[in-house]
Every structure is written in C-alpha cells, then in structure tokens.
C-alpha cells in the first residue's frame, strides 16, 4: 500500500479544531484497516516534523490555511512524499474563493453575482461609504465571505443594508480580501467528487439545518443539520448538478476528492464553492455521500490513499 502513513492534522488555521476531528476519524479508520499510521499535529516547523516522523505517505486532514491552500502540498512535493487530494495549484485555487469565481466565469459556469472588497481601500474610504456603494450596486440580501476561510468562519448573511458595515469589519478579521455575493434563496446541495482522471460524483446531499442557516454550529454539532439523500429535486436538476460538479473539479485540476457546494434557486443550480479537503468528521457531508454510494468510511480512506499513490 503506502508504507508508514502520516495523518497531517491540527495545524495553525482557524479550522484547527475541525481538522483534529477529521484527523482522529481518519486515524481510527486506518487502524481498522491494519495500516501503519501516526498523527502529526503540524506546528511551527512542519518540515522538521514530517521528516522526523519518517513517513512514506501523507494523508492530509488539514483544513484552511497552511494545509488546504497548497502550502503543505508544496512542502510534500519538495520532500518527495506522495499525499492525498489535489496538488499545489488546484489547492490554492480552491481555497481562494475569488479566484475560483473568476475561473468559473471564464468558462461560463453558473454562480451567484459577486463583487470583491479589499481591506485597505475599505478602511481608507470608510466602511459605511464602502457598504453604501456595495448595497447600491448589489442590493440586499448579501453574503459576506472571507476570501480564504472555510467552515463558514467569518461568513455573514446581510439582510439589512444597515448591517453591512459591521459585517465587512468582522469578516476582515479573517482575511484582507472579501467576497460579497448576492444571496440566493433556495435548496442547498453538495456534490462529493471522487477520483483522478475519470472522477465520479457520489450521491448528492440536500442540506437543511435546525436554524435555517448552515453555519459553523450547524456543520459540526450533531443534530443541528440534516443530510437528505437523495435530494428532493427533479432528476434532471440532479443530473445537471452532477455535471457541473464534475466540470468544476476538472476546471480547477483537482485530484482524489473534493466537494462542490450549490444553491438551487428559481433559475436553477448555481455553484457556490469547491472544497479540496472536505471535512471527515462524524457529522461531515463527504463520508455521508460515500456511505450512500456503498463505501464505508475505512474503505473511503483506503481509496483516497490509493488515488494519492497513483
């Protein structure tokens, strides 16, 4: 298989706690498969940690910066250690929501209308003035997202234009660039993609939450969100979503696995974002999609390693 496997987890991003849960689940699955695996909680000297562990393969269970954004992938390339998931470029593109949107637009793949807000001009012009310009151009409701965060950290749904200045200020705590996107009411769908050169889309999942908002709490608290498989959508819409998910995966140059999130509004499915390292916790979407396809969690982990070794 892959010799000694290092499960890279934890790290220094705002998604550290989620990563530790993902990594722990992966370690348990590897133990069930009888594979030799060790946990590596990456700190300030990741190269020394990885080299010191003497691993022959890396299972990346990191989320957010310094793990999902191409940096660790580049380090592993330099060290000559194969790893799960996408390479440097696809990881960097997938982590950067603005770059992803611009790529989608370049080939005409449908996604919500958006604008970009940068910290320095916004501070110079004033948050009230910046918000007024955005509201006049885009209207409300809007979604404010840090460019390079996951797990809904720093995300705000703004239904009243008067709340936009504070939403911008709060989101700038997490990034120097923000994506401000039109809010599309509709059905939230996620598509798990698995494979390398000929990727397959696993059964789609419709997401609902106890609060009506699929935020950090809903994502990682058992009982706060509900995964409906198959979605309550016509088959032609489901087929369209699967096709768009595959196109997005291939457009960014992904490998191994990824999850593409959608909103299905009155005009059909729109692509929201792509996650190159989906959550692997007990309440995560990707393992649920795999189970619906008849792939147990240990088998999924083993398959991701095989794809990484190709």
Question: How would you concisely characterize the structure shown here?
Answer:
Helices cover 40% and strands 23% of the residues. It has twelve helices and 13 strands. Strands 8, 9, 10, 11, 12 and 13 form a six-stranded antiparallel sheet that branches. The chain has a four-stranded antiparallel sheet with strand order 4-7-5-6. Strands 2-1-3 form a three-stranded parallel sheet, sandwiched between helices.
Outline the structure in words.
The longest helix is centred in the C-terminal third of the chain and has 18 residues, at 235-252. Strand 8 (187-195) and strand 9 (200-201) form a beta hairpin. Strands 8, 9, 10, 11, 12 and 13 form a 6-stranded antiparallel sheet that branches. Strands 4-7-5-6 form a 4-stranded antiparallel sheet. Strands 2-1-3 form a 3-stranded parallel sheet, sandwiched between helices. It starts with a strand and ends with a helix. The chain is globular. 40% of the residues lie in helices and 23% in strands. The chain has 3 domains: 5-84, Rossmann fold (3-Layer(aba) Sandwich); 94-110 and 185-309, ATP-grasp fold, B domain (D-amino Acid Aminotransferase, Chain A, domain 1), CATH 3.30.470; 114-182, 2-Layer Sandwich (Dna Ligase, domain 1). It has 12 helices and 13 strands.
Please tell me what the overall shape is.
Answer: globular
Helix content: 25-40%
- Arithmetic mean of pLDDT: 93
Second rung of CATH, namely the architecture of the largest domain? 2-Layer Sandwich
Domain module tally: 3
CATH topology of the largest domain: D-amino Acid Aminotransferase, Chain A, domain 1
Q: What structural class do you assign from the helix and strand content? A: alpha+beta
Query: What's the helix count?
Result: 12
Low-confidence stretches: none
Radius of gyration: 19 Å
The termini sit apart by 11 Å
The CATH homologous superfamily of the largest domain corresponds to ATP-grasp fold, B domain
- In total, the number of strands is 13
CATH first level of the largest domain: Alpha Beta
Order of helices and strands: EHEHEHHHEHHEEHEEEEHEHEEHH
Percentage of β-strand residues: 15-25%
Main pleated sheet: 6 strands, antiparallel
């Amino acid at each position: 298989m892959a010799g000694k496997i290092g499960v890279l987890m934890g790290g220094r991003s705002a998604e550290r706690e989620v990563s530790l849960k993902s990594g722990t689940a992966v370690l348990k699955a590897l133990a069930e498969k009888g594979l030799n695996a060790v946990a590596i909680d990456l700190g300030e000297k990741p190269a020394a940690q990885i080299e010191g562990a003497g691993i022959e393969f890396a299972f990346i269970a990191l989320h957010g910066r310094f793990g999902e954004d191409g940096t660790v992938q580049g380090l592993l390339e330099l060290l000559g250690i194969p790893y799960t998931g996408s390479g440097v470029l696809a990881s960097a593109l997938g982590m950067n929501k603005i770059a992803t949107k611009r790529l989608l637009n370049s080939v005409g793949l449908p996604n919500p209308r958006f604008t970009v807000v940068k910290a320095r001009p916004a501070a110079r012009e004033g948050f009230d003035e910046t918000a007024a310009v955005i509201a006049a151009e885009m209207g409300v409701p809007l979604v404010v997202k840090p460019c390079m965060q996951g797990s809904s950290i720093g995300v705000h749904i703004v239904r009243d234009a008067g709340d936009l200045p504070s939403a911008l200020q709060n989101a700038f705590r997490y990034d120097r660039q923000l994506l401000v996107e039109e809010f599309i009411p509709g059905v939230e769908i996620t598509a798990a993609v698995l494979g390398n050169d000929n990727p397959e889309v696993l059964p789609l999942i419709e997401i609902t939450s106890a609060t009506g908002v699929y935020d950090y709490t809903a994502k990682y608290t058992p009982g706060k969100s509900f995964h409906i498989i198959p979605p309550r959508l016509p088959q032609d819409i489901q087929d369209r979503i699967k096709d768009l998910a595959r196109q997005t995966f291939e457009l960014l140059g992904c490998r191994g696995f990824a999850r593409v999130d959608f909103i299905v509004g009155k005009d059909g499915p729109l692509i929201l974002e792509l996650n190159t390292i989906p959550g692997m916790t007990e309440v995560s979407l990707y393992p649920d999609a795999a189970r619906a396809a008849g792939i147990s969690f240990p088998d999924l982990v083993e398959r991701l390693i095989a794809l990484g070794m190709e």
